[in-house]
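Now read this:
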Amino acid sequence: MSISESVWAKIEEGRREDRYLKLETLFQELAAAYRPDELIFLCIGTDRSSGDAFGPLVGSRLKAAGFPHVFGTMEAPCDATNLERIIDELPTDLTIVAFDACLGKPGSIGKFLLRKAPLIPAGSMKGTFAPIGNYSVAAVVNTMGPRPYQSLQSASLRLVLQMAEETAETAIRLFEHSVGQTGKFLEN
């Protein structure tokens, strides 16, 4: 599941203030406004493709850190086969932060598209999923080409691991004030 940079931008023109230039800025805003138990981290992707593993890699790290509402990990991916079911089962009173890999322009590889807006899963694959998330983090893992599936399959695993680690570490660091004695996030 991934979204192309251009499809992501078409979700909504968006105001400039709805976009973030850095992961740190996005997670600072989230940590100031929400406790970890008020957020759902929806980490979209699969463990069967190097490029599309960004979401599950982030989800596994967040879950291991003790975030209480993480959907989509390497052990239990949130992918095309179960995404709609998972979305239907999400609590409706929590704020959703959606993570997914995407394809983009050559100069964008390794960058993040960050918005206070939803993303469209599987956008570059011409998927038909509805936009999801109150906030979104899209990692540009490779270039968009005539064969998007092949572009995801041939994305650098090193780059995807690096981007997932950077994303998870930033979230963990900026929510660390919510960690109790056990090292797990408090739910109060």
